[in-house]
Amino acid sequence: MEIFSYMEKYDYEQLVICQDKESGLKAIIAIHDTTLGPALGGTRMWTYDSEADAIEDALRLAKGMTYKNAAAGLNLGGGKTVIMGDPKKDKSEELFRAFGRYIQGLNGRYITAEDVGINVADMDLVHEETDYVTGLSPAFGSSGDPSPVTAYGVYRAMKAAAKEAYGSDSLEGKVVAVQGVGNVAYKMCRYLHDEGAKLIVTDINEEAVQSAVEEFGAEAVGTEEIYSVDCDIYAPCALGATINDETIPQLKAKVIVGSANNQLKENRHGDQIHEMGIVYAPDYVVNSGGVINVADELYGYNQERAMAKVEKIYDNVMAVFDISRRDNIPTYQAADRMAEERIEKMRKTKSTFLQNGHHILSRR
Ligand SMILES: NC(=O)C1=CN([C@@H]2O[C@H](COP(=O)(O)OP(=O)(O)OC[C@H]3O[C@@H](n4cnc5c(N)ncnc54)[C@H](O)[C@@H]3O)[C@@H](O)[C@H]2O)C=CC1
Ligand SMILES: CC(C)CC(=O)C(=O)O
């Protein structure tokens, strides 16, 4: 990848490569756009095949956060970190504290939280070195693990998409094919099961699958089978790019709603599923519950206030469907339009000179 051309094409602000020999830290912090405020986005720890893959993932995820935060109505820009390493083997206090020092060095331009491979205890270690971290233990007066709230938001989004596709938002009797039953999806499955949905699940982690079978009476299928099962709703909840040339022809679902980031491999796949009449609830509108919850920490965490905003994910998804119908565009474009319009309006508002500026972080 030609890094500068890529950054120029999608208007990225900054890419920070962090290396610490002592702890083995190899982290990439990508900041996409800070028009709305400091960039907030989680840290992912993953065994990437190459440095180029890691950089590309950080960049793509950071841009997604700009749109997610804007569409959710947050006064925050978009950024993300990836740490190259195996979350089962390579974690240490030194690594997370070294990482925390790099974040502190950005002086509030970027605030982090959990993502795949990272937990609350890891973020507590990062907090030893920086204030610019959220999703800390409730013992710090913080909001804790964002995944239960993300799960609730995805469930609400699924109800909105069901309303759009079937005229009723009840999920009773609906068959939902869940790809990846990790932190978010497992909790999402509980809401679906309680409402009477039938679950088909897959995961590379056998234990997680077994638990879903036992607790929710889910049917287990292989990782490649999940695309072609007979179902009403496909819920991609593992990693990104699963809506692609190979999988689209296999899909039987009428609705796609899941927690994974960057579900469309390319935009043209969003066009394709739109033409097929599939109701696609755009990923970053659907999975914004976690970031809405951790962002509330910046005002002094209040669970009731945060959950009131998470409830609105239902309306946000509906607003995307309305824009899609009004402008006759696929839903992924409708979501982008909603986010971009907000960023542009705020860019104009913020162009008025203010002596000492005002910053969301000054409230902490
Ligand atoms: N945790 C959160 O609050 C948020 C998570 N997300 C996104 O949701 C997705 C899931 O996140 P978490 O549940 O936190 O992560 P997780 O790591 O707990 O869960 C992911 C699950 O997918 C499974 N998996 C990986 N590759 C697979 C494959 N090829 N086929 C089937 N299963 C596979 C993993 O074994 C794991 O159980 C990620 O894309 C993440 O970026 C988005 C917003 C917030
Ligand atoms: C998990 C979050 C708190 C933020 C994030 O990185 C995301 O929404 O993808």
From TrEMBL:
The keyword Iron-sulfur does not apply. Belongs to the Glu/Leu/Phe/Val dehydrogenases family. The active site is at K80. Pathway: Amino-acid degradation; L-leucine degradation; 4-methyl-2-oxopentanoate from L-leucine (dehydrogenase route): step 1/1. One of its GO terms (biological process) is branched-chain amino acid catabolic process. NAD(+) binds at G180, V181, G182, N183, V184, A185. Keywords: Branched-chain amino acid catabolism, NAD, Nucleotide-binding, Oxidoreductase. It holds the Pfam family ELFV_dehydrog_N. It comes from Pontibacillus marinus BH030004 = DSM 16465. The keyword NAD applies. It catalyses: L-leucine + NAD(+) + H2O = 4-methyl-2-oxopentanoate + NH4(+) + NADH + H(+). This is Leucine dehydrogenase. Its EC number is 1.4.1.9. Residues 144-351 form the Glutamate/phenylalanine/leucine/valine/L-tryptophan dehydrogenase C-terminal domain. It comes from the Bacteria.
